[in-house]
Amino acid sequence: MTVAKSWATVAAVSSARRAGRDPIALAVSVGFFAIVASVIATLWRTAAHVHGGTVAGYTAVQLTWYLYFAEAAVTALNPRQIELTGDDIASGAVAVDMLRPASVVGIRIATEFGRCVPRLTASAAVGSGLALITGGAPTDSLGLLLAVPSLALAVLCNLAAQHAVAGAAFWVRDARSAWFLYQKLIFLLGAMLIPLEALPHWLHRTAELLPFVTMAYAPARLASGHVEPQLLLLQLGWLVVLIAAAVAVFGAGERRLQLVGG
Amino acid sequence: MRAISATMRAAIAEAWANRSAFWTQLAAMALNDLVWVVFWVLFFGKVGTVAGWDRTRVLLLLATVTTDAGLVLGLLSNARRIGQLLVDGGLDAALALPVRTLPYLLVRRVDAVNVGDVVFGIGLFFLACHPTPERTALYVLGATAGALVLIGFLVLVGSLSFFTGRSEAGDLGFQAVILLASYPVDIFSGATKALLYTAIPAAFVSAVPARLVDHLTVSDLVTLLAAAVVFVALAATTFAIGLRRYTSNALWSRA
Fold first, then answer.
1. A71-128, pLDDT tens digit by residue?
2. Domain ranges of chain B
3. Which of A29, A124, A183, B87 shows a CA-CA span of 20 to 30 A to A75?
4. Contact B183 A43 (CB under 8 A)
5. In the beta sheet, which residues pair with residue A54?
6. How far is B2 from chain A (nearest CA, A)?
7. Which chain A residues are Cβ-neighbours of B25 within 8 angstroms?
8. pTM beyond 0.90
9. Contact B47 A47 (CB under 8 A)
10. B36 backbone dihedrals φ, ψ, rounded to 5°
11. Which of A36, A50, A177 sits opposite B28 (nearest CB)?
12. A59 pairs with which residues across the strands?
């Protein structure tokens, strides 16, 4: 194992352990997830019941599983990660990370991924329980099984993209507002609030070309019982692209970073 | 009262001091709200009506909730931070002043982001909710009453930190009431719906005020006003009782 890889592993494992040591904070964030996901799932389930049992090709049960997994994938991350990373860059705190013999962005993504793991695991478990109670059994257990690695890939794609966006702070110093817009892109183009198939045709096609679908739609679609393993390949492909983009942005930014003070 | 209004003027001046940040934040929130309009248009474009709600009614709901929540979270921004202030010891600076503590805390901070909600809500009402003099008067009345319910609820759940020593209940209560108020109340049923009219009064923050604009009934009006009085009274009482047992964590100060 290379030094860089071992740094990343250590960062991920230690941040996961730290996050797991605060059960009350974990319970609050999972409680928040449960409320948000239950509300949006209830809305779509009601819509399906009112309209002959299906909306956009999804039954009420499928929509329920879809929405719990879409929410789990997105709420596992700190929604303001772009702002936090941007602040670290703008304040110069990122310089400390540059002292390590490893990729700055690699360590940061690994650390945040580790921090997300307890939240993601708990949200997926609680979401599955709630989907089972309020919607019913999943329509295809193989799809649900595929949704598990897809959740992890969704979080990784999201983190890589957030770091690529936050890296703009190397140039503009204040990337704080970007998180707001970024979140909304995941809500709609990532199909977190509304399944891709329910979007108008032109928006559906546009969303398919963008990376946001890997962050919510992919695990949600699989969990809803659609056995489409190609979604995992799509996530892997976008993950490579997004990590390359984040590394390139941070690499260019680190070269031009100038700090004043002691 | 003069001290409170002077504090509020200072808070507004503070938020207004950095004009470019003020307008950026205001625009960011308006953009955020616009995404919700897009969502509801797409949703109802696909499903037509749900539980008696259609696109027009939901846009009125959105206009109402952004206005009243924006008023509270924008102009009385500390309403959502009461629990955090108590836990951090941020209350201490306010206790040293010769003013009533709760009103001072509430007016001490203005949040430009949520002022954007108010601007958006008013704009949405006038653009998409068929304003007439009568409907506009009911919208103003409903949003004001909804704002009082929301202040009462936020202060009430925040004040629980006096007794628990932690602020998570306040945070969760805040997130829950705002979220639940943003959706049509009639998609829920049974115990959940009852909850929205009692423990988490989201229905009084959005659905009931919006219903008043569309279809004024005496029972809705009286219930809304009563809810506003009850939540404000409960909040003031809980805060006053909690304040008597408050001991500082001596962090100076984030009020």
1. 999 999 987 788 888 888 877 777 777 777 778 888 889 989 999 999 999 999 999 9
2. 2-244
3. B87
4. yes
5. A59
6. 36
7. 177
8. no
9. yes
10. -70, -35
11. A177
12. A54
